[in-house]
Amino acid sequence: MENKRVILAVVLSLAVLVGWNFLFPAKPQAPKTDTPTQTEAPTAQAPAPAAQRAETLPAFAPTPGRKVTVNTPLYTAVFNSAGGVLEQFSLKGYRQTIAPDSPLVDLVNAKAQLKAPLGLIVNGTPTWQNVEWSVEGGDLKLDAAGAGSLSFTGRLGDTLIRRTLTFSGASYLIDEKLSLSNTGAAPVKDRLSLTVAVDRLSAADDSYNPTQAAFYDTGLELFSNEKKLAEGMTDEKPVQWGAVMSNYFLVGIIPEAEGLRGKAKFEDEIFRVALDKDGIEIPAGGRTDLDVRYYLGPKDPKFLAQAPHNLAAAIDYGWFDFIAKPLLKLLHFFYDYVGNYGVAIILLTVLIKGLFWPLSHKSYKSMEQMKRLQPLLTQLREKHKDDRQKMNEEMMQLYKTYKVNPAGGCLPMIVQIPVFFGLYQALLHSIELRHAPFIAHLPFTNMIWLADLSAKDPYYITPLVMGATMFLQQKMTPAPGDPTQAKVMLLMPVIFTFMFLNFPSGLVVYWLVNNVISIAQQYWMLNKKS
């Protein structure tokens, strides 16, 4: 096998892997059941027939209850006493755009509010409707060391519902102690749904940062296809938590009880997730308690680590998790010194290239050896163009005679691919890069440029320059003997440029700097005197 054929295979594989999210956004798993009859926040009722239009629960009307506000250093939350549902949850450390006066990110905006986030459904009945509620406690203002609670109490038939929510000034977690008391003379068996509802957490057409329904048991399951979610889906096996999330934010339910099933639906432009618990038996005069935690905040590892049941698994670095995490720590290490994530990415790229310098050296040396053999290889192709087996045998003998490994130029590249994908995933899921500037304005102008490393280059300058560097690399690399193969190789910069046009600019900066260093190294290797 010729060196160039191996390199072509590696490059094409890299193109497929890098471009997979762009060309084929995360494919949701097929729904496991039909749409439940109560789809506003799915319950454990039997699935409706496929031809039957699913009913929609009435929207939440926030006016009957009074508002209670919780203020912490991290967020402002507004609850409605009618059921303890959320009307607002604004994150104080995050804005919607890079503009200094941009509104804060509100995980429960006016659209999501109509679906009663954090609302409970008991026996198919939304408790925020037709139930009288009272609230104990008033507005809370907590400092970083503070904690406080609110209690909401309501009655649904013979079931007395008491929700006690506890807040911490240093966490995005909300602890709930939920009590269901049977005030009747006969035992009851209740069915409970815990729900969250969220507007899109990212742009509808953002294939690199989709809003998804997520469930976790022993592994992470993601569902982002809105057409499929509009039909409703159920995860039949028990889950440890369920959430709506993007690359940067998460709104989730984390119950302590076992055996809850996850359900999700995309309805009226809102993502809804529910966790259902069947068969809650309460004897006459008895009570059943359930501990639940809710997380509403950024996908910041230090805060996710505070949550139970491995909520930190919501940050999914894929197969190369073991590489992505240390690279991210190195990125933060450089940032602590330079105070600019763009510069930190460049320093990290230089470090990685330095670590792989011996492998790259070996690769370029092999390329040079192959370049010297090209005339002989061309002669063999002409001589045995009608006998491919004979041609391959003589080529292998030629490699053996000159002690050249035809795969030597690409094997070092294969070793580096996991590092690339590890860093790719680390940068893609790093909330620190959201709204982090590199070069905020185009030099000598007031035009906003790389002011957000999580967004694409608005003028496509960096991906176009990156494509040019790839083309230069191709010209510096010995050309394949096969003309068709040579043309395919020259197309690779075009393919990569197209894919990188809408990449987050932080990723493009990494790839561009990597290419520039590679060109310098390759030039030095191929032109140095022996």
Automatic annotation (TrEMBL):
Keyword Membrane among UniProt keywords: yes
Membrane insertase YidC/Oxa/ALB C-terminal domain location: 341-525
Source taxon at top rank: Bacteria
Transmembrane segments: 338-359, 490-513
Domain called Membrane insertase YidC N-terminal: residue spans: 68-329
Bias kind Low complexity: ranges: 35-53
One Gene Ontology MF term: membrane insertase activity
GO biological process entries: protein insertion into membrane; protein transport
Membrane topology: Multi-pass membrane protein
Region (Disordered): 30-53
Quaternary organization: Interacts with the Sec translocase complex via SecD. Specifically interacts with transmembrane segments of nascent integral membrane proteins during membrane integration.
Family: Belongs to the OXA1/ALB3/YidC family. Type 1 subfamily.
Name of the protein described by the UniProt record: Membrane protein insertase YidC
Species assigned in the record: Solidesulfovibrio carbinoliphilus subsp. oakridgensis
